[in-house]
Design goal:
This protein is mainly α and 215 residues long. The chain has helices spanning 13-41, 48-55, 59-65, 69-80, 93-106, 110-125, 127-155, 165-182, 188-206.
Length: 215
């Protein structure tokens, strides 16, 4: 009678590959769980145990991919911001601003507001996370502003030296103040106000060589 051949899982490389593939498949759920907990309880109170429970994943799976909480949160924030918005081209600066902010507004809800608040609090105690947020989110806003202003300058709507930084310095602050502080809707009237009364006048003014020290 032939002897049964028993293959040890420790010696079977296909087992490790299978675990690795399943672990990779859980990564989006783990990142999402980390961001949800960051928004709900804050960075200091969130734990890897809670992330594992929320994502229905083992701690071993998490630690194979991320050595610690900071690395997981940084990666989750980076992936959330990975898709840079390509600003709509409507043919006018006003239309571009309203359309761009409208796209942003559609992606902002109470969960995103809580997440942003959690990220901002976490930045105080996690310098690496702060660097990630500045590198990813701030640079994304710079890209959007530069694109809008370059188009407007090419159309002759603003001076060639208009300050593209105005967009990323102003628009996100207005949007999140509306969402987090006043609680009022980010509707068409608000977007028109931001374009007509704030951003366009500022962009035109910064391109006129105005000396800010002059009275």
């Amino acid at each position: 009678m032939a002897e049964d051949i028993v293959v040890s899982t420790a010696e079977d490389p296909s087992v490790d590959i299978g675990h690795h593939r399943r672990g990779r498949g859980r990564e989006p759920a783990i990142r999402e769980a980390a961001l949800e907990l960051l928004a709900e309880v804050g960075y200091d109170r969130m734990s890897m145990d809670a992330v594992a429970a929320r994502a229905h994943a083992s701690k071993a799976t998490i630690y194979r991919r991320w050595p610690g909480k900071a690395e997981l949160v940084i990666d989750a924030v980076r992936c959330r911001a990975a898709h840079t918005l390509d600003p709509p081209d409507t043919g006018s600066l006003r239309g571009d601003i309203i359309a761009t902010l409208g796209v942003t507004a559609k992606g902002i809800g109470s969960t995103d507001a809580d997440l942003m608040a959690g990220v901002l609090r976490a930045m105080r105690s996690a310098p690496d996370l702060a660097d990630c947020v500045r590198a990813q989110l701030v640079e994304q806003k710079r890209y959007v502003g530069r694109t809008l202003v370059a188009r407007a300058a090419a159309r002759g709507e603003v001076p060639a030296d208009a300050g593209a930084e105005v967009f990323h310095e102003t628009a996100p602050a207005l949007m999140f103040f509306r969402l987090l502080v006043t609680g009022e809707p980010i509707d068409d009237d608000f977007l028109a106000h931001v374009a007509d009364d704030v951003l366009i006048p500022l962009l035109v003014r910064t391109g006129q060589g105005t000396n800010r020290q002059e009275k």
